[in-house]
Amino acid sequence: MARPDELTFAPLGGVGEIGMNLSIYGLGNRHQRSWLAVDLGVSFGDEEHLPGIDLIMPDISFLEKERNNLMGLVLTHAHEDHFGAIIDLWPMLQCKVYATKFSAALFEAKCAAERNPPKIPVTVVPSGGRVNLGPFTVEFIPVAHSIPESHALAIHTSAGTVLHTGDWKIDPTPIIGLPTDERRLRELGDEGVLALVGDSTNAVRDGRSPSETEVAATIAKLVKAAKGRVAVTTFASNVARVKAVADAARAADREVVVVGRAMERVVQVARETGYLEGVQNFRSADYYGHFPPDKVLALCTGSQGEPRAALARIANNDHPQVTLNKGDSVIFSSRTIPGNEKAVGAIINGLVVQGIEVITDRTDLVHVSGHPRRDELRDMISWVRPQILIPVHGEALHLSEHAKLARAAAVPKVLTCRNGDLVKLGPGDPGIIDELPSGRLYKDGAILEDSKSRAVVERRRMGFAGCAFVAIAMTQQGELADDPEVDLVGIPEKNVAGEIIDEIVFDVVVSTVEGLPRPRRRDPDATAESVRRAVRAVINEQWGKKPICLVHVLMV
Which domain holds residue 529? Predict the structure, then answer.
């Protein structure tokens, strides 16, 4: 008798971290499974640990091997941590992509901004609609979040239904888009849900997330009270917040000037898809200087401290069109993503030093999260009543707290897993049954590198301890043909005693070469290795750090 198909789940990104989301669902047996991918996002590089790395993406080597069995890639919403890796990684998968109208339009605009994007087929699915992908029927259930058209996915299979929540919250008054569809979620619970795979971002926070409507009221009050120029920075994708800022500006008789390419792109897509209907036209940055200080509001990118974004350039006084002066105000209508605190702090301090008033969510309700707090998580569990709950989308603490909450809410089986774990959901006892290849890819300029890449490892080492370059010319008889060339990069000029380190290194190179037996001096590789070791050792002795050392030996 044939065994029934197993339904499995594996996160390849987005578990134990916030960002880089990629989940896969499999249906079949150990030898042959059909796969469904949900989201394909990025996280952002950290200059301290990953110098020069712009984006981090999930390793999709497993899906690449299985691409003939990949039924499609379904998007929950259009945030970068959920769809930002598609352009780079899709050529390895070549699958169809499914998204609702706003996500598809924003993706199209993103592709149009690239130099040579691949031609990626995107099928538009209506909000609340269904799409059949092999043995999976995927239903798009509207949920409130900080971007239009966010959806939980009900993944219906012969082995049971999984609710993949995506990013969500409960907001009865979301300003733009539909509220979370409680009625449909309750119906799903009545029909029977095998597993809930759920957002854990705010599982450490009690209560409920405030509504976008409350933020809009605060922003309107602050803009009305402002005397000079006002700049507001927020996530470009938060169209509800953009509308709230526009309404506040109109009530205060101010023109809205949009500053930053990402903001311009989202505003254009939001207008095309009808989400800014009735909102006044905005002006380009060229018009900023034409308005009196009390008649203008700049809507800026740069809420995360990005060095080339509009707000950083304004704070540094090097933006070609937009300036702020003493008595003006900047509203940070955003929260700082972990890892960006230093960059954001530097901008805030720079503005304060110039006499500009900075308003953040520390003092005023100018931002709310798009993720559920603990009472909302309890509501979702009570509506859906899953047999299994798997916390995702969070760091270890968030996942652990979500799991504890689920156990307290009497969910029969709560499973925590890591990226790469293959989890059997049913039939039978759920649990981790295998480990799939997983990891990280680094976007280094135009090149994708894996995490063991020589360039990434060496750049980190160079950032810490510099580099020593030595060039030596040797005769065929094993004698120095000329003085060695020594170039030290990122290494102090003098030691503690005030002696010049370059000269010390030069002397060590000469003495090392001259101290080698003549047959060894005729071997360029052996000479280079002896010099490399001696140079690293002497620099460590003088400085306390071992640099990368590159030695080139030329036989003349």
Answer: 466-555
Count of domains observed in the chain: 3
Average pLDDT score over residue span 140-150:
98
Beta carbons within 10 angstroms of residue 439's beta carbon: 15
Could you give the residue ranges of the DSSP H alpha helices within 66-142? 80-83, 86-93, 101-112
Instruction: Output phi, psi for 78, to 5 deg.
Output: -105, 40
- For residue 463, the one-letter residue type is G
Query: Is position 531 within any domain?
Result: yes
| Pairwise CA distance, residues 476 & 481, whole Å | 9
Strand order in the sheet with 447-450: 43-44, 55-58, 440-444, 447-450
Neighbours of 104 (CB within 10 A): 21
> What's the mean pLDDT in 395-413?
98
Compute the CA torsion angle 322, 307, 332, 280 (nearest 10 deg).
Answer: 50
Residues 6+ apart with CB under 8 A from 1: none
Alpha-carbon distance 357 to 180, whole Å?
36
Structure confidence by residue, pLDDT tens digits, 202-212? 999 999 999 99
Can you give the pLDDT at residue 53? 79
- Which CA distances in Å does 546 have to 48, 440, 471? 19, 28, 19
Beta bridge partners of 17: 394
Nearest to residue 125, comparing CAs of 75, 181, 196?
Answer: 75
d(CA 367, CA 93): 37
| Residues 525 and 502 grouped into a single domain | yes
DSSP sequence for 40-51: ---EE--TTTST
157 plus 195 within the same structural domain: yes
- Round to whole Å and give the CA distance between 107 and 127: 17
Calculate the alpha carbon distances from 214 to 125, 170, 218, 364, 538 in Å: 31, 14, 6, 11, 63
To the question of pTM greater than 0.85 for the whole model, the response is: yes
